[in-house]
Amino acid sequence: MENTRIQLEQNDIPTHWYNVAADLTNPPAPPLGPDGKPVTPEGMSAIFPGAILEQEMSTQRWIPIPEEVREIYRLWRPAPLCRAVRLEQALGTPAKIYFKYEGVSPAGSHKPNSAVPQAYYNKQAGIKRLTTETGAGQWGSSIALAGQMFGLPVRVYMVKVSYEQKPYRRLMMQTWGAEVFASPTDMTNAGRAALAADPHNQGSLGLAISEAVEEAASRPDTNYTLGSVLNHVLLHQTVIGLEAKKQFDKIGEYPDVVVGPCGGGSSFGGIAFPFLADKAAGDKRAEKLRCVAVEPTSCPTLTKGAYAYDYGDASGYTPIMKMYTLGHDFMPPGIHAGGLRYHGASPLVSQLHHEGLVEAVAVPQLATFDAGVQFARAEGIIPAPESCHAIRVAIDEALKAKATGEPKVILFNLTGHGHFDMSSYERYFSGKLEDYDYPEEAVSASLEHLPKVG
Ligand SMILES: *Cc1c(COP(=O)(O)O)cnc(C)c1O
């Protein structure tokens, strides 16, 4: 019987993260503060520890992973690389389809890969408490887990509508010892202002960010954590691609195409960047490698957004960053059930896309769930709706290979399981989901509100 699950030993957990900034042809554009000048580390030191700020701005290629972090990674890493043989058979494709399965972490997704080092560096810096925001709860549960591992209390501002509609992620956070509040709260100026304007405010991610940042900025013992977008988060996530490369080495294969879902871009960067390192180093195997970031047609940041400076949050509270954006006041349509609804994308992924080193594809919602269900029926694992975006494109690539008869090697990132997302599947099965193309006019209208630079 052929081996379809390629395992590594715990000693194979990477000892260094890979920093793609070392291999960029053009230097990354710095984030800018309200004065239009590049943000300094001192300007951010009220909410982030020094080690994280150093990583955020570093151009050093390899950054050591602290032993304490590797010891916690051992709880679920190395994550398996699996070959989806039953899916290949169902598709009748000559392609080999591999997936890196990040759903094996305690929180069920790739997010703890960055939550653990973020908690570690804060603990090292003498910080006593962490804050964050969460929408559906994937990041909140990851930082709750990581905070618990290092004895750091975590306070999560959870968007009120999710707090009420998604009790199980909230209970996970509470099980790992975090305090969870429905945002807007009456504990911050941002929350009180929102409640004064509308006592029934249902909350938004932008507002929850404002609350979490305000608390961290106003308390010297407290820092803020963010689960995607920023350079240090993508750096931490490169353990995904670094392990995958070792696993491919073990079986003497190399992917032709690497596919990942893209919201803020952390898991996509995490799987793709280590392969792009081979390309940058002139590795023959990577000459024709394609990396494809997949997003929903209802939130088409990389495919329809502008490459411009914009705020990271809805309320214009954060520094501005150069990235693909739909405008910080973008509102995802209510019909959208598949996650990946952030208005921007990681500046690193954005730059690589702008320079033609990574591709982007937008896929409609129904075809995305079709792919997820087809995968679940062939391989057993029920994917997170976000991951279904990558599965859609992996299947499409496998079908193209079938048409041309090429035995392509496809790798996709199965970023998480969907056990807490069954209500999205329920909406799909009961016919309540529709396809939705975010209209060009709405994109241009939002882009008029971009901050003016220079
Ligand atoms: C958060 C999340 C994503 C999207 O975030 P990225 O930063 O783009 O990776 C994708 N898949 C899962 C399972 C997630 O929890």
UniProtKB/TrEMBL annotation:
Keyword Zinc: no
Catalytic activity from the UniProt record: (1S,2R)-1-C-(indol-3-yl)glycerol 3-phosphate + L-serine = D-glyceraldehyde 3-phosphate + L-tryptophan + H2O
Record-level GO cellular component terms: cytoplasm
Domain Tryptophan synthase beta chain-like PALP: 75-416
Enzyme Commission (EC) number: 4.2.1.20
Pathway: Amino-acid biosynthesis; L-tryptophan biosynthesis; L-tryptophan from chorismate: step 5/5
Signal peptide start-end: none
InterPro entries xref list: Trp_synth_b-like, Trp_synth_b_CS, Trp_synth_beta/beta-like, TrpB-like_PALP
Keyword annotations: Amino-acid biosynthesis, Aromatic amino acid biosynthesis, Lyase, Pyridoxal phosphate, Tryptophan biosynthesis
Residue positions where N6-(pyridoxal phosphate)lysine is found in the record: 111
Molecular-function annotations in GO: L-serine hydro-lyase (adding indole, L-tryptophan-forming) activity; pyridoxal phosphate binding; tryptophan synthase activity
Cofactor(s) the protein requires to work: pyridoxal 5'-phosphate
Keyword Iron on entry: no
Function: The beta subunit is responsible for the synthesis of L-tryptophan from indole and L-serine.
PANTHER family: TRYPTOPHAN SYNTHASE, TRYPTOPHAN SYNTHASE-RELATED
Quaternary structure note: Tetramer of two alpha and two beta chains.
Family: Belongs to the TrpB family.
Protein name: Tryptophan synthase beta chain
Organism of this sequence: Azospira inquinata
Source organism phylogeny: Bacteria, Pseudomonadati, Pseudomonadota, Betaproteobacteria, Rhodocyclales
Recorded name of the encoding gene: trpB
